[in-house]
Design goal:
The chain has 139 residues and is mainly α. The chain contains six helices and no strands. Helix 2 packs antiparallel against helix 3, helix 3 packs antiparallel against helix 5 and helix 4 runs parallel beside helix 6.
């Protein structure tokens, strides 16, 4: 794998996380309906979603907020040919932080653990964009 294609691997890993969360959401919703804890109609308008599935739904929503800047950043790094070792390390660190954040979100949902994972990813993504800026400025 060359560096010009390697930047897509963390992007694909993040997409896998999103698909995994959707799978988990469907499983939790089906289980809630099966056990009678929720009616299928409760998921039509998402008004009274039980906590077990609400946590997963919220985690999915989080994957379409800050990670949008990640995917755009990876594409910008690719286009600028700045997708080298530094960019790859930062990209993988961001994706790992998203996996940790999502895991905490759908399990204990403890802010004590979730917030540091978010802040680490936030800072890492900022460094990724800073790396792009530096690369463009000095190329």
């Amino acid at each position: 794998m060359t560096y010009t294609t390697a930047i897509f691997a963390p992007m694909i890993a993040h997409v896998a996380l999103v698909y995994g969360l959707y799978f988990l959401l469907v499983r939790r919703r089906m289980a809630l309906v099966k056990t009678g804890e929720a009616q299928a109609s409760a998921f039509r308008e998402l008004r009274d979603e039980p906590t077990k599935s609400l946590l997963v739904r919220n985690s999915i929503a989080n994957q379409f907020e800050l990670p949008i800047l990640f995917h755009v950043g990876c594409l910008a790094l690719f286009i600028a040919e700045a997708d080298n070792e530094v960019a790859l390390i930062l990209a993988w660190l961001f994706v790992i932080s998203r996996y940790v954040h999502a895991y905490v979100h759908v399990t204990s949902n403890r802010l004590r653990w979730r917030m540091p994972a978010f802040l680490f990813g936030y800072a890492t993504l900022g460094l990724m964009w800073l790396w792009l800026l530096v690369w463009i400025a000095f190329s």
